[in-house]
Design goal:
Layout (H helix, E strand, L loop, with lengths): L2 H15 L2 H4 L1 H7 L4 H28 L2 H21 L3 H33 L4 H29 L2 H20 L13 H4 L4 H10 L1 H22 L1 H7 L4 H26 L4 H21 L3 H27 L7 H29 L2 H28 L1
Helix pairs in contact: 1-6, 1-7, 1-8, 4-6, 4-16, 5-6, 5-8, 6-16, 7-8, 7-13, 7-15, 11-12, 11-16, 11-17, 13-15, 14-15, 14-17, 16-17
């Protein structure tokens, strides 16, 4: 792969994922007078929007230019942020986050498929390297966004954070335009192929390969507890006595350190323990998240949170390699959309429940039952895979 193409992909990914507004979003909701119950309802609309548009946007990405769909998703994100700072009300936040949800699912399907297609066009064996780089870019983006979100919201205002995020998303459009359009026979991107993509075909294709199903299910199951913990992580730090400015530093430090450690470990492993990592790392990660909820001291608890990030930074590039390298490219975006669709249905149920529990208990206590369910289902998933492999 040409180094400049990798650079454009990594920079574009960094900017698109740089969403400082999302990091302080629940704090912003509280600041404008919304309760945890109202925030739970708002996130319910977010998930409903994702459910409604998930599969259609995946099909759209497989049938048309993934780059165009990615740019459109960034524009929707910008629109949602503008509404959030212009309409500070319960209804305004519902409209804002619903638009954001549509943009998010378009981005999830199109950007992921665009990156994978761009990598496979040149050299299939470089996918792990690029996935590692984009993962580092992702966490570097979160780290930078956390620093800015914490400092700006603590010393200035939440609105400034939203404005900075809007500016960087505009720059992201420019860098996404620079990613070369894929024209490869390897991707089988003919008119006949892309017009025949149907949801049922994709489901049958996934179901026929038990390993694909296993890998796609991991993120779905992991999302049960991780979606609310990710949304409220800054709130958890603040709830436990850490001010916003220092919370941003904590987030930045933990993401940079975890991503760097994971990259070193990946280079050392060289695919020698892929099957063990795919089977057991998600389970260990959820166990660490449960410990994070149970440990009283927030600083010690954060060590366990960082540890699970390291594990998932190791797991995700390897999982992506095994999932995408031989995956039929004409089904890729639709498959990712189906995965996000199921995750959205789960989150639609989980977010209001979590909002209710958080209004009664502490945020970490409210997360415990969700992580417990994730752990049990991950165990069932690996048992099913091993059973299928033995028959």
């Amino acid at each position: 792969m040409h180094k400049y193409k990798i650079t454009r992909i990594v920079i574009s990914y960094f900017l698109i994922e740089f969403n400082a507004a999302w990091i302080i979003q629940t704090l912003y909701f509280q600041a404008i007078g919304l309760s945890f119950m109202q925030i739970g309802i708002i996130f319910g609309f977010y998930q409903a929007a994702k459910i409604a548009f998930d599969i259609p946007t995946g099909l759209l990405s497989d049938r048309h230019s993934k780059k165009t769909i990615t740019i459109l998703s960034i524009m929707l994100t910008i629109l949602s942020l503008v509404i959030a700072i212009a309409c500070k009300s319960f209804i305004g936040m519902i409209i804002s986050i619903s638009i954001y949800g549509i943009g998010y699912v378009m981005n999830t399907a199109a950007l992921s498929a665009l990156i994978v297609d761009s990598v496979l066009e040149d050299a299939g064996n470089s996918i792990t390297k690029v996935n590692s780089q984009t993962r580092i870019s992702f966490y570097a983006s979160i780290a930078s966004a956390s620093l800015i979100a914490g400092y700006m919201s603590d010393n200035y205002s939440f609105e400034i954070v939203y404005i900075i995020t809007i500016g960087l998303q505009i720059i992201a459009i420019f860098f996404t335009l620079l990613i070369p359009t894929v024209h490869s026979t390897q991707l089988e991107n003919t008119a006949e192929n892309i017009t025949k993509v149907k949801v049922l075909k994709v489901v049958k294709y996934i179901n026929a390969n038990k390993k694909y199903r296993f890998l796609l299910l991991i993120n779905i199951i992991f999302a049960i507890g991780y979606i609310p913990s990710d949304s409220y992580y800054m709130n958890i730090l603040v709830e436990n006595g850490i001010n916003l400015d220092f919370a941003g530093i904590v987030l930045a430090f933990q993401f940079i350190v975890s991503a760097s450690i994971a990259l070193v470990i990946l280079k050392f492993l060289k695919h020698r323990f892929d099957e063990l990592i795919l089977s057991f790392v998600p389970i260990f990660s959820v166990v660490l998240l449960i410990v994070f909820c149970l440990v009283p001291n927030i600083y010690i608890a954060t060590i366990f949170y960082v540890s699970q990030i390291i594990l998932m930074c190791i797991f995700n590039p390897i999982s992506s390699q095994h999932l995408h390298l031989n995956f039929n490219p004409k089904y890729r975006a639709t498959a990712l959309s189906l995965q996000t669709f199921v995750m959205s249905i789960i989150a639609l149920a989980v977010q209001p429940i979590f909002g209710y529990l958080a209004s009664i208990f502490s945020l970490r206590t409210a997360l415990l039952p969700l992580f417990t369910v994730s752990l049990l289902l991950l165990i069932v998933n690996i048992v099913n895979l091993k059973k299928n492999q033995s028959t």
